[in-house]
Design a protein that fits this description.
It contains 4 helices and 14 strands. By secondary structure, the chain is an alpha+beta fold.
Length: 261
């Protein structure tokens, strides 16, 4: 009976070497993967601090999704801010109309601010576009009864009279408002047909006059704000009925008030 010969040293060494190579090949993907992750993490951290990056790496034939935590400017990880924030929800019925009002926005170009800007030059040099809308209506409701310009005198019937303002029909005793802020320079009887008359100086050559008043409610030297009640309408002086004769004067010359209202 014969038995097989014992393997020689050469054969044993060959088998050991084969097993070592198999172990190396088995560990290779893991080592490559770790190296790839380390490299990818470094690239992400260097490319954008404070951000989350999702990367897909193909390492050793495997698709690997990697999420890199966000870091602060100092390099310290920071948590998701939404995790600690308190989020409130707004709910409403489907048929309910939602409105989001915004606060009123004011500007230095509104009201007297716009007028002051226009009057940085002499009133006589203010352009029509800049002048328009700088004065407030002297009455709550304007009902024109006689425009600015040439007309037939309603008292004498003479043709060619130059009407120096705008006439607005209104009941006697109606409040008359200052067209803009200014100082009262005249408040008395006007001997040239204006009856009870008030003149307000708005500065830099611009003034307004209010005529045929029944009550004078402002005194010379008084400071008025835009919209202040300064008088009540009437039919004093050269008048055929209750109305307000409103004038705008630029450097002492009457102009059409509609260019400033």
């Amino acid at each position: 009976m014969t038995s097989g010969a014992a393997p020689g040293p050469t054969a044993v060494g060959a088998r050991r070497e084969s097993r070592q190579q198999e172990r190396i090949r088995a560990k290779a993907p893991e080592s490559h993967l770790r190296a790839g992750l380390k490299s990818a993490t470094g690239l992400v951290l260097g490319a954008g601090a404070g951000q989350r990056a999702g990367m897909v790496l193909a390492v050793a034939g495997l698709a690997l999704a990697v999420t890199v935590p966000a870091t602060s400017a100092a390099g310290q990880p920071v948590g998701n801010q939404l995790d600690s924030a308190q989020v409130s929800q707004i709910t409403a019925a489907p048929e309910r109309e939602l409105s989001f009002p915004r606060p009123a926005v004011t500007s230095s170009l509104d009201a007297d601010g716009k007028l002051h800007k226009a009057l940085t030059v002499s009133a006589g040099k203010v352009s029509p576009d800049a002048a328009k809308g700088t004065l407030q209506a002297p009455l709550d409701t304007l009902t024109s009864s006689s425009p600015f310009g040439t007309r037939i005198n309603p008292l004498t019937g003479a043709a060619g009279e130059v009407h120096t303002g705008q006439d607005y029909a209104v009941a006697c005793g109606t409040d008359v408002h200052a067209a803009a802020g200014g100082t009262v320079t005249f408040s008395a009887w006007h001997e040239y047909g204006g009856g009870n008359r008030i003149v307000v100086d708005h500065g830099n050559g611009l003034s307004t006059t209010y005529n045929h008043l029944s009550v004078l409610g402002a005194k010379v030297g008084q400071t008025l704000k835009r919209g202040d009640v300064l008088a009540q309408s009437g039919t004093t002086g050269a008048s055929t009925g209750c109305h307000l004769h409103f004038e705008v004067m630029v450097d002492g010359t009457t102009v059409d008030p509609l260019g400033w209202l």
